[in-house]
Amino acid sequence: GAVVSQHPSWVICKSGTSVKIECRSLDFQATTMFWYRQFPKQSLMLMATSNEGSKATYEQGVEKDKFLINHASLTLSTLTVTSAHPEDSSFYICSARRTGVNTEAFFGQGTRLTVV
Amino acid sequence: GNSVTQMEGPVTLSEEAFLTINCTYTATGYPSLFWYVQYPGEGLQLLLKATKADDKGSNKGFEATYRKETTSFHLEKGSVQVSDSAVYFCALTSNSGNTPLVFGKGTRLSVIA
Predict the structure, then answer these.
(1) pLDDT tens digits, one per residue of A41-70
(2) How far is A2 from chain B (nearest CA, A)?
(3) Nearest-CA residue of chain A relative to B48?
């Protein structure tokens, strides 16, 4: 079964509204989770590293006020796209790794966001 | 720093053809290497992995051997099926679980009947 669960799978929202995406690790505690964005037929773009109990670390060029990340527990990280616009439409994927060196990453199912 | 280079494709093959997707890497320390597969509209799934030199990862007919001397981890399958159509990502890590994997850009594979 899925080790990392992401919800919702798809969402359509109006411009100017906010959308929250949840990412849960189901059978292990994840002090760190990762959020990616993927444009059609393109590779993964790391947006930010979510840290439990502290601020997220954002990659260069990612607006922290636009993409709010909260990692309130060891099994849940959320990404909120605030004041969404059509250019925010994309496929968002979360990921988590077990503690330890050289461990694999588990990915959520992804969320298709469409802003109209 | 760590990096992964893989052939970008797209790759189009007929059913039952032989598949090779090349992947080379640069890394400090002793990385673990991975191949992930992404089917349309889905997240990434781990396909196979290798944790040390000369290890061979295998799954669902796919294989890849960790070659330290050539810093490579090429993905192969002897006979592809239409259901193998997907995007394949090569990745590595030589760090702890609080750092993200380093990914190649992905290779899109289309298998036609």
Answers:
(1) 788 999 999 998 889 999 999 999 999 999
(2) 10
(3) A104
